[in-house]
Amino acid sequence: MIEERRPGFIDAHLHCWDPARLSMKWLDETPVLNRPCELPTYVADLGRGGLTLEGAILVESAVDDASLEAELEWLVEQVAKPGPVLAAVSGWRPTAGE
After folding, report:
1. Under 8 Å between Cβ of 60 and 89
2. CB atoms within 10 A of CB 69
3. How many alpha carbons fall within 13 Å on the CB side of residue 65?
4. Of 20, 19, 96, the residue nearest 61 (C-alpha)
5. Residue 37 gets which letter from DSSP?
6. pLDDT in tens, the chain (98 residues)
7. Nearest-CA neighbor of 56 among 18, 90, 9?
8. Other C-beta atoms within 10 Å of 14: how many?
9. pTM for this structure?
């Protein structure tokens, strides 16, 4: 029997986080998301659905200001690793009046 494989895709806006590593006050208001949300889990979940992640662009996760530099360092690490992460967007903060 030949197993059908769906074509892979690129997730162009993927948020990953670990509350033990980065502070995000907004998670306190969203208990269902107040847990690690990491790339290996996401890839495994997709695989169970027959999907393959060919590439991903990681996007900042609205960390508290005190964790901004740590998040940037983590994102740089993720881009440098072999795997589906192709790029990352981080470090942006809105200012009053925008």
Report:
1. yes
2. 12
3. 3
4. 19
5. B
6. 666 666 788 999 999 999 999 999 999 999 999 999 999 999 999 999 889 999 999 999 999 989 999 999 999 999 999 999 999 998 766 664 55
7. 9
8. 19
9. 0.80
